[in-house]
Amino acid sequence: xxxxxxxxxxxxxxxxxxxxxxxxxxxxxxxxxxxxxxxxxxxxxxxxxxxxxxxxxxxxxxxxxxxxxxxxxxxxxxxxxxxxxxxxxxxxxxxxxxxxxxxxxxxxxxxxxxxxxxxxxxxxxxxxxxxxxxxxxxxxxxxxxxxxxxxxxxxxxxxxxxxxxxxxxxxxxxxxxxxxxxxxxxxxxxxxxxxxxxxxxxxxxxxx
Length: 208
What we know:
Elements: H1 3-18, H2 20-47, H3 53-81, H4 89-115, H5 122-141, H6 148-168, H7 179-207
């Protein structure tokens, strides 16, 4: 084993553990931004009747790009404020843990959108696949942060699997709920709720 490689990994792990509280504080504005974007996008998508898999996938990929750009700007501002490099080894570790499930979600969405462009009910299952894979990504990233983010990830995994089971068994009444509702619930409301929780608890700690 290369001793320099081992030393670099130990240093990265140490920095991640030391900065876990900082990452928790930085998450609050990011989650609130993502939640606001998700909620507004879900309402707009429902009102505009974006239902076909192709339109649904391309629409939400656009929303994700906007939310990601906003998150990166917030992270960069926090890094400049704390006089730290934006693309540090700890940040790379977190990004690497997020990448596989998110890449899988992208691949599933693109395949479904262009293979079954007109199967409206498929959008419901695409949304749930994204929910579960996003939860897996959060759970993986949570090993480098406080354990709360892992629990947050499990909410997505369990909630997504629960809705998926109901969908496969046919939803009560025979109709599946609109996919936009699923996106608004998980990527909108849940983000807003957890972001508000982080903001209020961190504010409370500073007041003590």
